[in-house]
Amino acid sequence: MIVTGVLPAILTPFTEGELDLGLLGEHVDWLHERGIHCVNLMGTTGEGQSLSLDERQRLIRFLSGSKLDFIAGTGCTSLPETIVLSLYAVEHGARAVLVVPPSYFDPGDLTGWFTALLEALPDHARVMLYHIPRLTYPIADETIRVLVDRFGPMLAGMKDSSGDLEHALRWQAEFPELTVANGNDAAAGPFFAAGGRAVITACSNVLPAELEALRAGDESPQAFVSGVRELVFSLPTHAALKLLLNVVSGIARSSVRPPLAELTREQEELVVTRFAELRG
């Protein structure tokens, strides 16, 4: 398996609109101290699509020198940019690249798009497909089969952010040679209990110990984790997670980048109050 265990879809901190690598380093250290060994950089939770190519390369360089392994979100609308960023990530030690389908155009040949990407990468590169149908185009089973047949171990797996536990478990059964990473905190416990090997989630940014306990077979944190997920996804999610990171770790709170929204004062109070209630 290319990745196993709990992988936070790590937040990207901004201060006054610019990347704040100092805050990112504090978050990386905090996660490492709590048993996290690998993160997903520049995914949905990491605001990857709001970053320039140069910023994404800066983040890759930063993580390549950190205490944690990483997989890099490298999907762009442009195939050439996706290739450039994926090559850069592989060259800087990413365990894999996680590639979301392109946006804007209806992809009549998504298999061809991924084929062109894989053809442009070295044989030792490892690619994971990012299935997130609520935001972009779904990954079809046939696309996976074609890519496995053509590229073998270069296709390392899929992240399933459909929210459908049965879909993730079906993929795991049908493609046992691949890593299927569940993207839903609310199903982390059941997924691990059913033999799942990896999760890549938003709430593990702020609840790494609870997610690791679920991985170890302790089901008791699931209600708390699910409640926190429900809370943050009912609000501007990225801003809520960045506030919660400050609450649980003491790391300075960072901002989001437009088009994402910051929390209102009332929403801030709700996050803090409701989180305290959930934590008991």
Please sum up the structure shown:
The protein is an alpha/beta fold. The chain has helices at about 20-35, 55-65, 80-90, 110-120, 140-150, 165-175, 190-195, 210-215, 220-235, 235-250, 265-280, and strands at about 5-10, 15, 20, 40, 70-75, 95-100, 125-130, 155-160, 180, 200.
Keyphrases for this structure?
single chain, 280 residues, alpha/beta, TIM Barrel, eight-stranded parallel sheet, two-stranded antiparallel ribbon, 10 strands, globular
How would you describe the overall organization of this protein?
With 280 residues, the chain is α/β, with parallel strands linked by helices. The chain has one domain (5-216): Aldolase class I (TIM Barrel, Alpha-Beta Barrel), CATH 3.20.20.70. The chain is built from eleven helices and ten strands. An eight-stranded parallel beta sheet has the order 1-10-9-8-7-6-5-4. Strands 2-3 form a two-stranded antiparallel sheet. Strand 9 (179-182), helix 7 and strand 10 (198-201) form a beta-alpha-beta unit. Helix 10 crosses helix 11. The longest helix has 15 residues, at 265-279. The mean pLDDT is 97.
